[in-house]
Automatic annotation (TrEMBL):
Transmembrane regions listed in the UniProt entry: 26-47, 67-88, 100-123, 193-211, 243-265, 277-298, 305-324, 330-353, 365-386, 398-420
Source taxonomy: Bacteria, Bacillati, Actinomycetota, Actinomycetes, Kitasatosporales
The organism of origin for this protein: Streptomyces lunalinharesii
Protein origin, superkingdom: Bacteria
Protein keywords: Membrane, Transmembrane, Transmembrane helix
InterPro entries: MFS, MFS_trans_sf
SUPFAM superfamilies found in the cross-reference section: MFS general substrate transporter (SSF103473)
Gene3D superfamilies referenced in this protein's UniProt entry, alphabetically: MFS general substrate transporter like domains (1.20.1250.20)
PANTHER family named among the record's database cross-references: MAJOR FACILITATOR SUPERFAMILY (MFS) PROFILE DOMAIN-CONTAINING PROTEIN, PTHR23542
Designated name of the protein: MFS transporter
Length: 423
């Protein structure tokens, strides 16, 4: 009996495998070699985008004593960017990011330095327009970054969705910090300091970005035919024109919101707090952009986009209501809440743009989206400025971004209905 018991095998309790922690979607992105390097360089190259126009505005207005002249010069540069940007992006697609982005950036930096010298030496006004127009060759670093993510994760929609969320949050961060840094440099160091620092950051950032060759998408001229070299122009892509119109209206939201907030704060005696109010709006947008990246991509992105634009239109009525109270705290809360809807709309919209553009024309298509946004921002700024000067109450100015958001919703809803009716 004792021998029998001794011979029986002793069964050990089952060993449970260690529980594996689920990796964050963002950790998956940056686990790929080379992604951290180009993302960091892209952030550095994008920061001047929020600095250049503000620096030029402050530098010209301070030296020439005319905000009208300063606004006309920066407006001319914006119009030139809308024309030249897609051409630069098309060259990037065809010949590669490094071969085009570096010389294009060098030309843009020379334009910024020429503007600085013209202002410094008291050159005629026409030289200011010519110099600032030369900065239109600045490449769209955000579009090039998104193209790299699309290349690296061409077969992983979830990763591309997370990458788009990260890129949108990066855009918000740069446009949040850029104007603040430019204002500090122009007012605290020298009127020319903002332009000089922005030009240096732009050139350094693009050089570092272009040096990351292992994550660079292949140029279309190197691909075999038939390939993206024969792809149709992005504007002929099905469903893209309505998206660009929505981006145009969304840009008008951004441009008008900035102007009417500054005007409202000035009228109510708390103008120094205007920057903080706008920072809250950008912070709310950036935070929700990052949170959206943690969610899986939508099975029907068109429906999600419609929902995001509808939410944006609804929440942008809050600043109008809060401004009527005259309480800065309520306005701050309303702007923070309204900002939470803009990034999800932009992230989902950019994803739709990428899905509707031929692979070999991606930079060009994204440049068209950015051009639509910039055109909308310029239009919204002009409309917001007109409202601030001509409407009887500064509160009514907040009706401009609300109307622009409603227009974006109407365009998106109409496009969604047409798509649903197609076989």
């Amino acid at each position: 009996m004792i021998l029998f018991l001794a011979a029986r095998p002793v069964t050990a309790p089952p060993v449970r495998p260690p529980r594996r922690r689920r990796r964050s979607p963002y950790a998956r992105l940056f686990a790929v070699p080379g992604t951290r390097a180009f993302a960091a360089a892209g952030l550095l190259a994008r920061l001047p985008m929020g600095m250049l126009s503000v620096s030029a505005l402050l530098m010209i207005a301070g030296s020439r004593g005319s905000y009208a002249l300063a606004g006309a010069v920066t407006g001319t540069g914006l119009a030139a960017t809308a024309l030249v940007g897609p051409v630069t992006a098309r060259l990037v697609d065809r010949h590669g990011q490094a071969r085009i982005a570096v010389p294009a950036t060098a030309l843009a930096v020379l334009g910024s330095l020429a503007l600085l010298l013209c202002v410094r030496t008291g050159a005629p006004n026409w030289t200011l327009f010519a110099s600032y127009a030369a900065t239109a060759t600045t490449p769209n670093t955000g579009g090039m970054s998104r193209a790299r993510w699309a290349h690296l994760f061409h077969d992983d929609p979830a990763a591309r969705h997370t990458a788009n969320s990260f890129e949108q949050a990066a855009d918000e961060l740069c446009f949040l910090l850029g104007p603040v840094l430019a204002t500090l440099l122009c007012t605290g160091v020298a009127p020319e300091a903002g332009t000089a620092v922005a030009a240096a950051l732009l050139l350094t950032g693009v050089l570092l970005f272009a040096a990351q060759r292992r994550t660079e998408p292949p140029a279309t001229r190197t691909l075999p035919l038939p390939s993206a070299q024969q792809a149709p122009a992005p504007l002929r892509s099905r469903g893209l024109p309505p998206l660009l119109l929505t981006f145009l209206a969304t840009g008008a939201v951004f441009g008008s919101l900035e102007v009417v907030t500054v005007a409202y704060a000035d009228a109510h005696g708390f103008r120094p707090a205007a920057g903080g109010l706008l920072a809250l709006q950008a912070a709310g947008s950036g935070a929700t952009g990052l949170l959206l990246g943690l969610l899986p991509p939508a099975a029907r992105p068109g429906r999600r986009f419609l929902g995001c634009v509808a939410t944006m239109a609804a929440l942008l009525t809050l600043p109008l209501a809060a401004a009527a109270t005259g309480a800065p705290v309520l306005l701050a809360a309303a702007l923070l809440t309204a900002g939470t809807a803009t990034a999800p709309a932009m992230v989902t919209g950019m994803g739709l743009v990428q899905s509707r553009i031929p692979a070999g024309r991606l930079n060009e298509g994204l440049a068209l989206a950015v051009t639509a946004l910039l055109t909308g921002i310029a239009t919204g700024s002009a409309a917001g400025g007109w409202a601030a000067e001509h409407l009887p109450s500064p509160t009514a100015g907040y009706g401009v971004p609300a109307v622009a958001a409603a227009l974006a919703l109407m365009i998106t809803a109409a496009a969604t209905a047409v798509t649903a009716r197609r076989p």
